[in-house]
Design a protein that fits this description.
Largest sheet of chain A: 8 strands, mixed
Oligomer: heterodimer
Number of domains of chain A: 1
Structural class of chain B: mainly alpha
Structural class of chain A: alpha/beta
Radius of gyration of chain B: 25 Å
Distance between the termini of chain A: 37 Å
Number of strands of chain A: 11
Strand content of chain B: under 5%
Number of strands of chain B: 6
Number of helices of chain B: 26
Largest sheet of chain B: 2 strands, antiparallel
Shape of chain B: globular
Strand content of chain A: 5-15%
Helix content of chain A: 25-40%
CATH class of chain A: Alpha Beta
CATH topology of chain A: Alkaline Phosphatase, subunit A
CATH architecture of chain A: 3-Layer(aba) Sandwich
Shape of chain A: globular
């Protein structure tokens, strides 16, 4: 206890300087928080909430993620070489879809086929902790095929990776070459900052590097690293460290130098404290798969474990990612492997939040660049538009679909053309606002964070209790 | 020495041994053509010589600074064009399945050496640190960041080396030739799926991957551009797309009918097994023969053979007015400054469109013009762009950050671990995460209206890892001597010994690392810090030199090359 307090004081003093330091002490309620956590167990924080974004980079082929079970023949005919055998599907019956049965890709719960595998998402669907949003994507306003073909407004640069990944992270779907990009996570963090009092530790931690989602004019994600090396201890007394810090304050009339120094100052200010959470291997006992995403989500769990004792935060946002979804060729096996990694890491993370007593305070959601064409191109699929997304957590009203499943007909009512690129029926803005509202974003800030939300009648999709 | 290095790679000796050979060569390195020290009447100020070398090499060195001062920038460019080319070596082809290539009991480094970019990354850093063809290598690296094939997807280094050599060869060649060479290169064919892209029937579309990226990333971009690089707007103020989905499908059909070249001695068939050592070959009966919509309303003729269709389509791209501003602005950003004025882009676009002899796409002329432009040079401090635009310059990319520090202090290096270091800063050479490269040319620094491509990857972790690299090099080394990487601080130490005020050391760092642009406040702070240290023994002066160097290299004032 004493040790951790002393360390924290030292870090804060170093990072922030005397004047800011005093106010941060008050605002964090630090003394109280530290005094109350002497049992070595983090007290559950009843008002705590966290959002965890898992971005599937490359454009996830949603058509093989959720598959119509009743109308399987149509699916199999359209998908050809990409069709998943019906017998392998994990059957689910979402109440919102009447009596229709759907099938999850078998690797969304690898333990069903191979019991020795780490468990995936089917148990969470069954226990109502996992919801699915079919055919959600970037939209300016509701759009039918007829309207699309007639040239009604649609997001800029559909089917382009970088643009669509940016738009999913920014919720800014107009042309992105003119205005600086800010993320809806970053803008949300700016406008919910008061929920963390005057805490100085960043609301957003990204184990997945820099990203648009977590950035705004003033918000940057904290990305984990080992911390500065080479200084004497205590570092604040090292004149070389003091001098380096001082140089970071100079010559900032150049905005380029300013941006570089700002990044470094934020890094120095917060990295050591973050590492106290990340290096504590006892705070999270849940076994995570040793995959990239598994490691990222374990880091998230370790940060959440220290939300009050180290950071004094009531709201946190995390950005994680898994790449490899751009499956143009030879799709089947790699895509299945990605689903194994995704589902096992998500399940482990959910179990960790249960163990930490925060399952209902943490909501995890997926995003991706876009869906992919229903009609294969060779042995893979090409860039599409609308895709299916998953939401997981104790507060999720799961075991259900929210939104309309697309009609799997090339050239049909949901297609932009003839290859099965789905026009979204649910917009990213509706999806994001439902998450943000739960998180505590005020209605007054809705339009700033989700610029097109007012174009949609139903704004809260209702998947969070 | 160069021959030794090449042959040692060919003979697949241990990289460390090769590097030792190389280093011994470098230690003796001197500009072979007329080394001049302290030229009596320099043609270029020292500060300009350093700036020019920051823009055109992987880092200024004292011999090169003297050289530029004595022969001038124009002759220096000529020297660079004529310098022998450093190439990536031919490496042995291994079985596609690493379990066959590196079975149980193999050398523990078998996988690393033959199924990852490791050997090529060593070579990349050795070329960057010690190669005499600095400008060629610098431009080649810039071009690879535009025409991305990632080693993360192309596993074997033997498959990647021929692709990388296209850029060393093409750095001073013609863009149109490079576009063709890239298109039919099997590494690109595998990366973006043009290889084995078959014509389709029944309304299905062929693979669109290469079609989309060649337009979006390798040539024209998404929006119509003015020649000065600014975006054209329609009457309602919206940017004007350069193509639509129909164009993509048209180009996707153009790129059908190509497979890998047959392996030596094998009969060519649709499809051939992977072969990365020769350009792809066409099979006419797998090429889509329909007329195809291309750019600017052009439609390709029906029933053209695969290669004729390809040449026609690449000419269609090449002649699009966007190519000049799209490519030239990125090269300016990579070499000189993130926010070139429209006038600068416009002047270089004009050279791309016509090199003065009626040739379009002459990259040598483009690079020459970029580096000699009035906005790149600062012959008169009173009027030059770098002195008058406070936001001039760019954040050194991780690779440039590392190589500039090493080259400035006469480093010895075997290249080992350097790519790990830059990866932790967001840039692992030859392994960009996606076809969108390491960072994006149109990235806006948050909270500003300034472009800052390198800030795309400048996270809190990257910033810390840069400082920790400086710490390693200034106070220690990578690896155990004689292997690894180390810089030589004896010169800096001597300057400290000779001047107890510390001024000479700081002046030297200002000269060599910051082309004399260090602010008075920065200078004062560093002097205060080092003169507070004891200054009696040799160890004292080494410490003063080290502290000063650490403070400069970790500063943003250094990391932003202006």
């Amino acid at each position: 206890m004493k040790k951790s307090r002393r360390v924290f004081l030292r870090r804060s003093g170093l990072a922030l300087g005397g004047a800011v330091f005093a106010s941060s002490m008050r605002s964090l309620g630090l003394v109280n928080a530290l005094a109350q956590s002497g049992k070595g167990i983090d007290d559950p924080a009843p008002d705590y909430k966290a959002l965890v974004c898992i971005f599937l980079f490359g454009g996830n082929d949603c058509n093989n993620m959720i598959i119509p079970y009743n109308d399987y023949t149509n699916y199999a005919t359209r998908r050809g070489v990409l069709a998943i055998p019906q017998a392998e599907l994990l059957q689910i019956s979402p109440p919102s879809q009447g009596s229709l049965i759907y099938g999850l890709h078998p690797k969304l719960s690898p333990e069903v086929a191979i019991p020795t595998q780490m468990t995936g998402l089917l148990p969470l669907w069954a226990s109502g902790k996992l919801a699915i949003l079919p055919n959600v994507g970037t939209l300016i306003q509701p759009l039918t095929r007829t309207q699309y073909l007639a040239g009604q407004p649609r997001p800029a640069n559909l089917f382009s990776h970088e643009d669509q990944a940016d738009q999913h992270q920014s919720a800014i779907v107009a042309n992105t070459t003119i205005n600086p990009l800010t993320g809806w996570g970053g803008r949300m963090a700016e406008r919910t900052a008061m929920l963390n009092g005057n805490a100085t530790f960043p609301m957003i931690v990204s184990p997945s590097g820099t990203n648009v989602f977590s950035t705004s004019d003033t918000i940057r994600p904290l990305v984990p690293s080992s911390g500065l090396s080479g200084f004497t201890n205590p570092i604040a007394s090292d004149p070389r460290y003091q001098s380096m810090q001082n140089l970071l304050t100079l010559d900032r009339q150049s905005k380029v130098i300013d941006a570089s120094s700002d990044t470094m100052q934020r890094a120095i200010a917060h990295t050591d404290l973050l590492n106290q959470a990340l290096n504590d291997s006892t705070s999270v006992t849940t076994v995570f798969p040793s995959t990239g995403l598994g490691n990222q989500l374990r880091q998230v769990a370790r940060v959440i474990a220290k939300r009050s004792t180290l950071f004094g935060l009531q709201r946190q946002i995390f950005f994680c990612s898994i790449g490899g979804f751009d499956t143009h060729e030879n799709q089947l096996t790699p895509h299945a492997n990605l689903f194994s990694q995704l589902s096992q890491a998500m399940k482990a993370f959910y179990e960790a939040t249960v163990a930490l007593g925060v399952a209902s305070s943490v909501t995890t959601f997926t995003l991706s660049d876009f869906g992919r064409t229903l009609v294969p191109t060779g042995t893979g699929s090409d860039h599409g538009w609308g895709s299916h997304q998953m939401v997981m957590g104790g507060a999720v009203l799961g075991g259900n679909f929210y939104g309309a499943f697309p009609t799997l007909t090339p050239g049909g009512p949901d297609d932009t053309g003839s290859q099965g690129r789905w026009i979204p029926k649910t917009s990213l803005d509706q999806y994001g606002w439902t998450l943000a509202k739960w998180f505590g974003l005020a209605t007054a800030d809705k339009g700033t964070v989700f610029p097109n939300i007012s174009n949609f009648t139903t704004q809260d999709l209702g998947f969070l209790g | 020495m160069r021959h030794n290095v090449h042959s040692c790679f060919k003979r697949a000796l241990a990289p460390a041994l090769c590097a030792t050979i190389l280093i011994s060569g470098v230690a003796a390195q001197s500009p072979s053509k007329g080394r001049v020290t302290n030229p009596a009447t320099p043609l270029v100020t020292e500060s300009e010589a350093v700036r020019y070398l920051e823009q055109s090499t992987f880092g200024p060195t004292s011999p090169l600074i003297n050289r530029v001062q004595s022969i001038g920038i124009k002759d220096m460019l000529q020297t660079e064009y004529e310098a022998p080319m450093s190439v990536y070596p031919d490496l042995p082809v291994f079985p596609a399945d690493s379990a066959d290539g590196c079975p149980t009991g193999s050398d523990p480094n078998c996988f690393r050496d033959n199924y990852t970019m490791y050997q090529l990354q060593l070579r990349f850093f050795l070329n960057a640190l010690f190669g005499d063809d600095q400008l060629r290598q610098r431009v080649a690296f810039a071009l690879h960041q535009i025409f991305v094939v990632s080693g993360l997807a192309i596993q074997q280094p033997s498959s990647m080396a021929p692709y990388l050599n296209l850029f060393a060869r093409g750095a001073f060649g013609n863009y149109r030739q490079l576009l063709y060479d890239v298109t039919v290169n099997p590494a690109m064919g595998a990366y973006l799926d043009m290889a084995n892209n078959d014509k389709r029937s029944g309304g299905a579309s062929p693979n669109e991957n290469y079609a989309r990226e060649i337009l979006q990333l390798f040539s024209i971009g998404l929006y119509r551009l003015n020649q000065d690089g600014t975006t054209q707007l329609d009457v309602s103020g919206q940017p004007i797309p350069t193509y639509d989905q129909n164009t993509i499908i048209g180009f996707a059909k153009i790129f059908t009918g190509w497979t890998y070249a047959p392996l030596p001695g094998a009969t060519s068939q649709w499809t051939n097994p992977e072969n990365y050592l020769a350009p792809m070959v066409a099979f006419e009966n797998h090429h889509d023969l329909s007329a195809k919509p291309l750019l600017n309303g052009v439609i390709s003729l029906a029933n053209q053979k695969a290669k004729k269709d390809l040449v026609f389509a690449l000419d269609n791209i090449f002649n699009h007015p966007n190519v000049a501003p799209f490519i030239c602005k990125q090269l300016i950003q990579n070499l000189v400054t993130s926010n070139p004025t429209p006038g600068y882009v416009s002047r270089i676009s004009a050279v791309f469109n016509n090199n003065g002899s009626g040739v379009r796409g002459d990259l040598k002329a483009v690079v020459s013009a970029i580096l000699q432009d009035s906005e790149a040079r600062c012959d008169d401090v009173a009027t030059c762009a770098s002195a008058n635009d406070v936001n001039y310059g760019h954040l050194r990319s991780p690779v440039l950050y590392v190589t500039n520090i090493l080259r400035a202090f006469n480093a010895t290096s075997d290249g080992v671990s350097l790519s790990d270091r830059t990866r932790n800063m967001g840039q692992e050479p030859l392994n960009p995460p996606t076809v969108f490269s390491y960072y994006r040319p149109n990235y806006v620094i948050p909270g500003t209206t300034l472009l800052g491509p390198e800030f795309t990857i400048q996270s809190s972790a990257a910033a810390i890892n840069r400082a920790n690299f400086a710490n390693t090099m200034v106070f220690g080394r990578i690896g155990t001597a004689p292997a690894g990487t180390a810089i030589d601080l004896t010169g800096l130490q001597a300057l400290s010994t000779g001047d107890g005020t510390g001024v000479t050391v700081v002046n030297e760092l200002d000269r060599l690392l910051m082309h004399g642009a260090m602010s008075a406040a920065m200078r004062t702070r560093i002097l205060q810090t080092i003169t507070a240290l004891p200054g009696v023994t040799a160890a004292d002066h080494l410490k003063r030199a080290r502290w000063a160097l650490y403070l400069v290299t970790t500063s943003s004032q250094y990391q932003v090359a202006r």
